[in-house]
Amino acid sequence: MTATATKNVSYKELGFVNTRDMFDKAMKGGYAVPAYNFNNMEQLQAIITACVQSRSPVILQVSKGARDYANATLLRWMGRGAVEMMKELGQPVPVALHLDHGDTFELCKSCIDYGFSSVMIDASSKPFDENVALTRQVVEYAHPREVTVEGELGVLAGIEDHVSAEKSHYTNPADVEAFVKKTGVDSLAISIGTSHGAYKFKLKPGESVPPLRFDILEEVERRIPGFPIVLHGASSVLQDYIAMINKFGGKMEGAAGIPEEQLRQAAKSAVCKINIDSDGRLVMTAVVRKVFAEKPGEFDPRKYLGPAREALIKMYAEKNQTVLGSAGRV
Ligand code: G3H
Ligand code: 13P
Ligand code: ZN
């Protein structure tokens, strides 16, 4: 690595913003800022293009796995490249570069030093006091550098089975005031029935997706009024794309996500950030499968990743417009 690659850099030099102002506006405006994960160039191009076109602020989300996959230095400069590209297009929108599900202080520190404007410390699986201590440690490093921090209370289930809902650890509203006060976090992820991945519910034929626990959300809002709430695991698992995957050689029977109306309802509340990764993965997979099935001789990655990127732009722009409500807010 060169000296430039290892040099600490503030996110401000890279053109990012932290989430404070974004969340203030989202809270007042009754919408949520999209937090879209990316691992590669086409996803990044699609997210930025869709958010510029729909005039939406955006949180570019990088997981530990994404950082390992794409290289931490490359990702940092890709993010900066996206901001520069947006400026050249003449219509910049606010962009935060955010660490998704940081699990150690060292990882959060490394991302802050690499120019992230926001980090999540996810110590939600630890006992309350340990969660508080680790989250506080990250806040103490982040805040002097004007980096915002997301913490989490409650554990999202892997694959939820609503018949045995006690397996998922919903956020206990009684904990939120103390957590926010003791840690100094800027936003709080809570567990109200969403989960990660493409199989959020195991539904029997004829059953529909159970509603999110809006009662828990309301109680959290009552206890910490005006505090930004984050919803993870918020992909809708778009059924048109599941059908396309299954039609063109894939096997994803029973994949199900959070209905869009429920997300729209959440976005109107104190939920200021909605995390979406799986829907992007599904769109990309479906389109690539279709191209391969219809043109088996195709071997130029631009010919299958290009159409996938176009479909991603459309999907993200539609989410901003109809689900997040973030379109037209810049
Ligand atoms: O919440 C998890 C995100 O979807 C990131 O997933 O760790 O496979 O990159 P990943
Ligand atoms: P999905 O798997 O529902 O897209 O959730 C993504 C997420 O929460 C990233 O942190
Ligand atoms: Zn998540």
Number of DSSP E strands: 8
The largest β sheet comes out as: 8 strands, parallel, barrel
**Relative strand content:** 5-15%
* CATH-derived topology: TIM Barrel
- Return the CATH class: Alpha Beta
Low-pLDDT windows of residues: 1-5, 159-166
The shape, in one word, is globular
CATH architecture: Alpha-Beta Barrel
Structural class category: alpha/beta
Q: Which small compounds were modeled alongside the protein? A: glyceraldehyde-3-phosphate, 1,3-dihydroxyacetonephosphate, zinc ion
Total helices: the number is: 14
Approximate helicity band: 40-55%
For the largest sheet, list the strands in their spatial order. 1-2-3-4-5-6-7-8
Q: Number of domains in the coordinates?
A: 1
CATH superfamily: Aldolase class I
Oligomer: single chain
User: Measured on Cα atoms, how large is the radius of gyration?
Assistant: 19 Å
Q: Spell out the helices and strands N to C.
A: HHHEHEHHEHEHEHEHEHHEHH
How widely separated are the two ends?
A: 38 Å
Q: Mean pLDDT score, rounded?
A: 93
Write structural notes for this entry:
The two termini are 38 Å apart. The relative contact order is 0.16. This protein has an eight-stranded parallel β-barrel with strand order 1-2-3-4-5-6-7-8, surrounded by ten helices. It has one domain (3-324): Alpha-Beta Barrel (TIM Barrel), CATH 3.20.20. Helix 4 (41-53) packs across helix 14. It has helices at residues 3-6, 11-14, 20-29, 41-53, 64-70, 72-89, 105-113, 128-142, 176-183, 214-223, 239-247, 260-267, 278-294, 301-324; strands spanning 33-37, 58-63, 95-102, 118-121, 148-153, 187-190, 229-231, 271-276. The protein is of the alpha/beta class. The protein binds glyceraldehyde-3-phosphate (G3H), 1,3-dihydroxyacetonephosphate and zinc ion. Glyceraldehyde-3-phosphate binds at residues 37, 63, 65-66, 100-101, 196, 277. 1,3-dihydroxyacetonephosphate binds next to strand 3, strand 8 and helix 13.
